[in-house]
Design brief:
The complex is a heterodimer. Chain A is an alpha/beta fold. In chain A, 26% of the residues lie in helices and 23% in strands. Chain A has a single domain, classed as Rossmann fold (3-Layer(aba) Sandwich), CATH 3.40.50. Chain A is globular. Chain B has a six-stranded parallel beta sheet with strand order 1-10-7-4-2-3, sandwiched between helices. A four-stranded mixed beta sheet of chain B has the order 8-5-6-9. The chains are: A alpha/beta, B alpha/beta.
Chain lengths: 213, 468
């Protein structure tokens, strides 16, 4: 359809005669770095509060307390077989079979698991958002999507204050073509009479563990 | 449903009390949520200024941005197609789907694909497009159309949805009355489709020219499913969705969710760049759609309608939309933004009543996250309707011409005033039936100012000047 391409671009160019003004972008909003570098106690507290607002559960733990917290959460949710990314840290959860995504699990295999345990690339305090970037502890996109229960470990040092901080930090991931997913609470809909229902197709339960680092 | 124009469609819709209640409740609820979430952002106005400028810049440099986007997506392993109109776009999509021998595609909610009637076009080619957004599924199963950009089935209440689901996806099972159970029925119905259908279609909220990254913003996770699990992904995108730089996302990712659902952030935002080995679809097609957008771009005033990010804040703010609902606009783009976008996309002659579907109160402009001056575009389009499509011999034009002559001459003017006094009352009411059915005529005074001035008794000479 290259003929279509040239014709379409010609029409766009013709529509811009006489030339439209090209404005400078006024970036008077709080840009990356305006609220500090993140990871401090106020930022971490704000993140925890905002995650809780989405009716996800959030627990603050030390590195030593993490295995116990994960074990307790899986026991409470009845999760026995849980997926984890190929390159995740060597997490251990007592009484739970952790199934590493190596070799890659098929969507049907993932559908049969009780949950998924992942880390994240970074998190945004102001909006209570977890960001995954497809590598390391984030894992492939399907991994944190198909199972109905998502346990996500967030290192406090990875919590940035604002959306512009996150977008700036993710520029290399975008340049490398890695898929990026912003997750803010469990999946939800308000399509029926504006009544909020948590959990439609994405994981219906999201437990976030903030590890003080 | 054949198109009747806004006045007749609005009259039809206003007769539906259920719809009025649902839409009234929905718009006031979302309005309150939005207000709370916008109020907590100290730099909201600065974000709006940046958003407006980024969009204006993207449109002013559109040829360059589209070529950059094409190069970035191609470099990342995607294929870019150019579609002049709905027919071309549907043919491209259908060709890709049939090339894979797929009898079904799963679909992320997308206004662009609704605009081009993609589902019907695919059905003609033997391909079933399955809507996966809950509201779109409700509308698809009920052979209904969208009434709101963001919550497209808001005109339906739970009793209607319960009945619809029980006789379709739940195959006769009693689902009860809880929205949770109804959503669960949709989840069960669609899960197998997500796991098995090899081709998905989507729209795009943004496309970054610099990196080739496409973004879809959603809540349910159906978008992530469609963007991740199938082997082939086809994204249909209006050419106005392009953003020049990666960092521009930081503005829109803040403006959109707060303006749309009144959330700090929507549950899921997916950003992908071409094809990524081992993760997600291994074949990606981006179809760039014109379908009237270059005509909009050619109108120096009207082109700002292309800045729209489809948040629907203008719908929720609009006193007209809040009462007549979405169907009265007879377009996939309802509300104030639809009133300026639809006539420009389809041609003014095909929707000449829409620019009048507004009281010009200006609430939409106040709410718009990218500061589209909708009232001024409405006025501009009204002017174009009159200049380009209304007859010079219309009663309105003739009346204005006559009034112009009368106002130009003192003698004619004074005689007209006398006539007005004589003809006031039943004669005027009969002459202006449309006007007087809804409001009273102003009283014509028994004496004009000039008559009063001439009839004054002469003043004494010493009272004329100011006191010293």
């Amino acid at each position: 359809m290259s003929g279509g391409r040239e014709a379409m671009l010609a029409r766009v160019r013709a529509a811009l005669v006489p030339a439209a003004e090209v404005p400078e972008i006024p970036r008077a909003y709080r840009q990356a770095g305006a609220l500090g570098t993140g990871g401090d106690s106020a930022t971490v507290k704000l993140f925890c509060d905002r995650v809780a607002d989405y009716r996800a559960t959030v627990k603050r733990v030390t590195a030593e307390e993490l295995p116990g917290a994960l074990t307790a959460a899986c026991a409470q949710r009845g999760a026995r077989r849980v997926a984890m990314p190929a390159d995740a840290p060597p997490w251990a959860v007592e009484g739970v079979e952790l199934v590493r995504d190596n070799p890659a699990l098929s969507p049907r295999q993932l559908d049969e698991l009780d949950g998924v345990l992942s880390g994240c690339a970074l998190a945004i305090a102001e909006t209570g958002t977890i960001v995954l970037d497809a590598i390391g502890a984030s894992g492939r996109r399907a991994l944190t999507l198909v199972p109905d229960y998502h346990l996500c470990v967030v290192r406090s040092a990875d919590i940035v204050p604002s959306v512009p901080d996150a977008v700036a930090a993710l520029a290399p991931a975008a340049a490398e073509g890695r898929p990026i997913t912003f997750i803010s609470g469990p999946s939800a809909t308000v399509d029926i009479e504006l009544v909020r229902v948590e959990g439609v197709h994405g994981p219906r339960t999201l437990d976030v563990f903030v590890v003080d680092s | 449903m054949s198109k009747t124009g806004f006045p007749a469609a609005a009259r039809r819709e206003l007769a539906d009390a259920q719809m009025r209640r649902n839409v009234g409740k929905a718009t006031s609820t979302i309005r309150a949520r939005r207000a709370a979430r916008v109020a907590e952002v100290p730099d909201w106005e600065a974000l709006r200024d940046a958003g407006a400028a980024i969009k204006a810049r993207a449109m002013a440099t559109l040829p360059e941005q589209l070529e950059r986007l094409e190069a970035s997506v191609t470099r990342a392993g995607g294929q870019v197609h150019w579609a002049h109109d709905a027919a071309e776009c549907n043919a491209i999509v259908s060709g890709i789907v049939r090339g894979h021998g797929a009898p079904e595609v799963i679909k992320v909610k997308s206004l662009a694909t609704d605009e081009i009637g993609m589902n019907d076009a695919l059905a003609k080619d033997g391909v079933a497009a399955i809507e996966t957004d809950l509201a779109e599924l409700i509308n698809q199963l009920g052979h209904d159309t969208s009434s709101h950009i963001l919550v497209p089935a808001i005109h339906r209440n739970r009793a209607e949805i319960k009945q619809l689901f029980e006789r379709t996806v739940a195959r006769g099972e009693d689902l009860g009355w809880e929205p949770k159970a109804l959503a669960e029925a949709a989840r069960c119905h669609l899960r197998e489709k997500f796991l098995s259908v090899p081709v998905a279609t989507s729209g795009a909220n943004f496309a970054v020219a610099e990196t080739g990254t496409i973004g879809v913003v959603e809540s349910e996770g159906n978008g992530r499913m469609c963007l991740t699990l199938p082997q082939v992904l086809i994204t249909v995108m209006g050419i106005e969705k392009v953003l020049p730089e990666w960092r521009d996302l930081e503005v829109f990712v803040q403006l959109l969710p707060r303006s749309a659902t009144g959330e700090r952030m929507n549950p899921y935002t997916s950003l992908w760049t071409g094809v990524h080995a081992g993760d997600g679809p291994q074949e990606f097609h981006l179809v760039l759609l014109d379908n009237g957008r270059t005509d909009v771009l050619a109108d120096e005033v009207g082109r700002s309608a292309l800045h729209c990010i489809r948040c629907s804040a203008c719908l929720n703010s609009c006193p007209v939309y809040s009462r007549v609902g979405g169907h009265a606009y007879e377009s996939v783009y309802p509300g104030p933004i639809g009133a300026i976008l639809t006539p420009q996309l389809r041609g003014l002659e095909n929707a000449p009543t829409l620019p009048y579907a507004s009281s010009l109160c200006g609430a939409c402009y106040e709410f718009c996250p990218v500061k589209i001056n909708i009232p001024s575009v409405l006025l501009h389009l009204r002017g174009r309707v009159v200049r380009e499509y209304k007859s010079k011999r219309s009663p309105e034009a003739l009346a204005m011409e006559t009034i112009g002559r009368v106002f130009a001459s003192q003698g004619l003017y004074e005689r007209a005033q006398k006539l007005a006094r004589l003809g006031h009352g039943p004669i005027m009411a009969a002459a202006l039936p449309g006007w007087t059915s809804m409001r009273g005529l102003p009283e014509v005074p028994q004496q004009t100012f000039r008559e009063w001035w001439r009839s004054r008794p002469p003043e004494p000479a010493d009272a004329a000047g100011p006191a010293s």
